[in-house]
What we know:
About 30% of the residues lie in helices and about 20% in strands. The chain is of the alpha/beta class. Strands 1, 2, 3, 4, 5, 6 and 17 form a 7-stranded mixed beta sheet that branches. The chain has a 5-stranded parallel beta sheet with strand order 8-15-9-10-11.
Amino acid sequence: MSDYDVAVIGGGAAGLSAALVLSRARRRVLVVDGGMPRNAPAARMHGFLSRDGFAPGELLAAGRKEVQGYGGEILHGAATGLVPDGAAGFWVLLAGGKRISARRLLVATGLRDELPGIPGLRERWARDVLHCPYCHGHEVADRQLGVLGGSPDAVRYAQIVRQWTGDLVYFTPPGTLTRAERSGLLARGIGVVDGTVEQLVVHQGRLCGVQLRDGCVVRREVLFVPPRFVPNDSLLAGLGCAVDGKGWVTVDAAGRTSVPGVWAAGNVVDPRAQVITAAGQGSAAAIAINADLVEDDVRDAIRDHDHGLLPGPAVSARLPQTPRPAPSGGAGSSPPATPASVRRSCPSAAVWRYGMAHCRR
């Protein structure tokens, strides 16, 4: 027998949301939480209905408490490998040499943001160097904003950031803009600076400018940078999950991967997922996982029944046992007759006895 019905690898919004749904479905659930959420550097998260403005850590702490309130378990540590175990499910190898077994897996290990190698970007990340305008644009609206160009879709990204300010500068390496792109930027009042960005200029703990290689400094208060998204998918790769043309693990609408028994949710398979999106994906995956487990439970019950084995504990087994009254006519007397109306609707004596015990609670 497996230690758990489901092992959830990753304790972010997707993983905890899945664990909450599964633990409420009375499944044995373990969340292996590596403790390195992608949005940890951010002071606040936004766009999450009813939780707008929460600190990311507050949301996760509340999620862990909710999961544990329904019997789910949280293990603070890292999973180092996932190993198939035949029909039984999988082994989850943990840092430190331990392992646990689970019938199903949900991997929600997120992604990491790779930034260009410009001095100052990493140090200012999630402060005044930002990525997602939908997460942070409102908080920096109408300020002097910049967009670091040079990556695929960076021009389109700059056009989106323009929604939050009328004072926007697009920094582009020389010779990379097409005529149509330049025209589109200028038409919306976006300044274009051709040159190589050398470093950020910070004064008294705040970004105040972007310095080019020629020494020119363009005053900016916030810089939006489209990073390169790198999924933390080594565990999925180790299982042989199929990937698309860009190298991302493919899943269906419910998060099922190409490997039977393995699901994935959140940024590890969807780089565009915000916190609320990831939570929804985790919930959808949990519902699909529970349905898949029910199919196994039905198949196992039929097999046991065909071999003459008694069924496992059911709802009636959890009811308080009520002593049956002794027959009034002595040891040789027959038990009271079951009313005919009940016999017609409940032909099984076992069902009748359960019903009477239930009504006498």
